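Weekly structure sync, notes
Attendees: PL (lead), two postdocs, one rotation student
Agenda item 3: pending single-chain targets
PL asked that the sequence for the first pending target be pasted directly into the notes so everyone works from the same version. It is reproduced below exactly as submitted, 156 residues in total.
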Amino acid sequence: MKIGNSNDWFPGAEVSTYFTLLEQKQISNAVDATNFAWLAMGQPTHAFDLDKIEGGIIVRRAHKGEKLKTLDGVERTLDSEDLVVADHAKALALGGVMGGWDTMITPSTTNVLVEAAWFEPWLFAARHVATACTPMRATGSSGGPTSMQRRLLRPS
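Predicted structure, written out during the meeting:
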């Protein structure tokens, strides 16, 4: 696969216009395709650089204290309540929330793994807000951020 700019994939559905209206920035053809699917289906999808994955992928709970640098450049200390997409060696992404830095799609990526999973919407909605992945807003009963949001907003 050749990573490059997104093109409008079909007439009448201009990706740039659609993304602009939803405050979603365009990144690359592979990433934009997964973001387009996420926005259309309401379920997260993610593109990984396949050549940076050791073995296959699994979904598991994070190990308490496990580290993951997310796509926003923040090094996060995970808790055993966090759901991660992992390979045989390490966490690759915060499940349903944000991918990891080490397996991000770059211009040198040639092999892409697309992950699509069903996550309970209540499980990842607050996490999307906490990691600024979407313009959705969720608050705790006091009107402030939920405890999960505060934990995810706190870098290591």
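Discussion points:
- The radius of gyration is 16 Å.
- The CA atoms of residues 69 and 75 lie 4 Å apart.
Action: rotation student to compare against the earlier draft before next sync.
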